[in-house]
Prior knowledge:
- The chain has helices at residues 37-47, 60-74, 78-86, 95-108; strands at 6-8, 14-16, 28-30.
- The chain has 112 residues and is mainly alpha-helical.
- The protein has two domains: 6-47, no CATH class; 60-108, no CATH class.
- A three-stranded antiparallel beta sheet has the order 1-2-3, with helices on one face.
- A hairpin with a 5-residue loop joins β1 and β2.
- The longest helix has 15 residues, at 60-74.
- It is rod-shaped and about 70 Å long.
Amino acid sequence: MIIQRIEIQEDGSFLVNKNLTADDATQLTVPDDMGNRHRVMIQEWIDEGNTPGPYIGPTALENWVEEMARSDTELLSRMMEDMLDGMADKSGVAQITLDRLQAKKDLRATKP
């Protein structure tokens, strides 16, 4: 394994060569366990004077996008949301569906 870049992850594991496209740069997640041969290689890389990048969590927008995608499958698909929004008379629509529509609108309004 050729190490070009390492990022520490939220759980303490290491992400090696994230988003590199070189043929010899394999992306790999390595647990923080010195019994793991790749973890030993990471320590050797650090001992050579290299520094892993810190954990940088997802942005507010990335979290929101993920929540919107999840709501498309768990609450109401975007297509159904658009169809319901276009209906002038929603009197025949079940209350749970209207509640889900409102939940989606509320979530959409929180976009960072």
